[in-house]
Amino acid sequence: MMHVITQFIQKGQQMQDSPATRKKTRKKGDSIDGTSLRYLAMLEAIPRSPYGISVEQIMNELAGQGYSIDKRTIQRDLPKLEVKFGLECKQQGRTNFWSYKSDAPPRMFPHMDEHTALSFQLVKAFLRPLLPPETVNAINPWFEDSGKKLSGREGVSARWAEKIHVRPLGLPRQPPNVDQLIQDEVYQATLRELSLKILYLKRDAKKAEAYLISPLGLVIRDHLVYLVAAKNQTGELRYFALHRIRGAEKNTEEQFIHPQGFNLKRYADEKFGFQIGQTPTLSLKLRLNGMATVSVAESPISTRQTLSQDGEAFILTVEDAPNTFELRQWLRSMGKSAEIIEPGFLRAEFAEEITILARRYGLK
């Protein structure tokens, strides 16, 4: 970019420079190098559409960086940069606001390398559905630029995107449909800490209910997105499945509620772990064989677990296993490769479940 900017200045200097002009004392930003840096500062100050910045705001931004430049100079400079850098000017009232066009190619220092381009492509492939629509729109030019960067390579490096695939553990499921306008409204209210009025359809309900809430954060669990919020009237903490929200509208008149001591991770661990029983953890002892042993050896479920051999099997002891629905699902997934030894109540729980299943399948 510096090379391009310098070309602009050199052309202007050839046309406008004169002995009389050269005798004048130049201020910061008047030399070729200084003007290049000033152009850079101007370009960095300009936002991407739909946001904009006025000439006066640019002048104040430059003044804060030590450039003594008048408003008229900036008004002359901007049209020089407009076409090359994808700028546009929109009038609001009597003021002109400058911005990058929404599809203007991004400029990066240093230039985007293959690893950065690959990172953007991975974000596009796997995280894009979870990002706020505003964020996706803002980084779309980087998605496009990274795609061009990788597709323009020759040889094996051109096929980077074909060499990585993320497959989720468990049975793949399609996410439920989420209204994009509702998602955008919810995400904006969450990011800007604004009260939000929603219409929410509870599971098995026939009619949606209205809530006035203060959105505190988003929890992503598998293929589902949940909005955690405080009810404005009572301060009660609730979570709402995003796909069950039937309407959403930001409310700037109602005060946003910040519950004292609220921590999103702590709340998510408590509410989405689906604790069973009175205690959050339990002391677990299993007899394992086959691939189940390899799995827990390579990927421990706790830092406080031990694995010892017992004949042809192995004994797994975990002092602080989570007493949750997820633990039981994990135990079920191992089938006959795992036997619960302790605690007794969990062994009895599974024995009863197996008895019910045996009857269901016609076994004694």
Please explain how this structure is put together.
By secondary structure, the protein is of the alpha+beta class. It folds into four domains: 99 residues, Arc Repressor Mutant, subunit A; 50 residues, no CATH class; 92 residues, SH3 type barrels, CATH 2.30.30.520; 80 residues, 2-Layer Sandwich (Alpha-Beta Plaits), CATH 3.30.70. Helices cover 40% and strands 23% of the residues. It contains twelve helices and twelve strands. The strands form three sheets. It has a five-stranded antiparallel β-sheet with strand order 7-6-5-4-8, covered by helices on one side. Strands 10-11-9-12 form a four-stranded antiparallel β-sheet. A three-stranded antiparallel β-sheet has the order 1-3-2. Helix 1 crosses helix 3. The longest helix is centred in the middle third of the chain and has 19 residues. The protein is elongated, with a radius of gyration of 30 Å. It starts with a helix and ends with a helix. About 5% of the residues have low confidence.
Features:
about 375 residues; alpha+beta; Arc Repressor Mutant, subunit A; SH3 type barrels; 4 domains; about 40% helix
* Rg, nearest Å: 30 Å
- How would the global form be characterised? elongated
- Report strand order across the widest sheet: 7-6-5-4-8
CATH class division of the largest domain: Mainly Alpha
Structural class estimated from helices and strands: alpha+beta
Number of DSSP helices? 12
- Spans of at least 5 consecutive residues with low confidence: 12-29
Compute the average pLDDT.
83
Distance between the termini: 78 Å
Q: What fraction strand? A: 15-25%
Main sheet record: 5 strands, antiparallel
The total tally of domains equals 4
Per CATH, which architecture of the largest domain?
Orthogonal Bundle
Number of strands: 12
CATH topology of the largest domain: Arc Repressor Mutant, subunit A
Helix and strand sequence: HHHEHHEEHHHEEEEEHEHEEHEH
CATH superfamily membership of the largest domain: Winged helix-like DNA-binding domain superfamily/Winged helix DNA-binding domain
Q: What is the share of helical residues?
A: 25-40%
